[in-house]
Amino acid sequence: MTNEDFITTFPYHFVVDQDCKLVQAGRELFNHVPRDLLVPGTPLIRIFEINRPQIPLDFDSICNFINAVFVLQVKTTPMEFQRSITKRNSQTMEGSGGVESDFGSVDHMTQSQHLKLKGQMMLTASGRHVIYLCSPYVTSIPELLQFGMRLTAMPLHDATRDLILLNQQRLSDVEMKFV
């Protein structure tokens, strides 16, 4: 498998060295993290904060918890993404009086702009790098849209697609009970 094949197969991933500095990042991360942070050599701690497990974000700690599920949260939001959220919010406020949109409150959309990723850390055979294979930690179509994502941005093998669709069906079923 070539490096390009790997990047295409796993659009949400990154590789770090023993100093926890970025070596490589998946193409979809560029839609959620400022480009200047995704250059090789950037310390991982500048890009993400760790939500789970509650450990320091360093190579040794990651290796000690290699079998755990890791949830990382992007610390910043790209400027162009912030502008699109602001534009969408102003359109929503104009169309609905600023109270509710079809996807929830405007305030909710602006409060949680930092994408979370859920996945697995894997130590490479050389023991000098860790690969984080992950998916966006989203559970509904409104949440997906909140981050400017589409289901088609996720690979077919990613169970997140099925989770989102099943959850949407469940929400629709609940709504139908009250109609």
Number of DSSP strand runs? 8
Succession of helices and strands? HEEHEHEHEEHEEHH
Give me the number of helical elements.
7
What's the alpha carbon Rg, rounded to whole Å? 18 Å
Strands ordered across the widest β-sheet: 2-1-8-7-4-3
Here the CATH topology of the largest domain equals: Beta-Lactamase
**Beta-strand share of residues:** 15-25%
Molecular shape = globular
Distance between the termini: 52 Å
The total domain count is 2
Kindly report the average pLDDT value: 84
CATH architecture label name of the largest domain: 2-Layer Sandwich
Sheet with most strands: 6 strands, antiparallel
Kindly report the name of the CATH homologous superfamily of the largest domain: Haem NO binding associated domain
CATH class of the largest domain: Alpha Beta
Structural class: alpha+beta
InterPro entries: HNOB_dom_associated (IPR011645), HNOB_dom_associated_sf (IPR042463)
GO cellular component, one term: guanylate cyclase complex, soluble
Protein name: guanylate cyclase
Domain Haem NO binding associated: 2-177
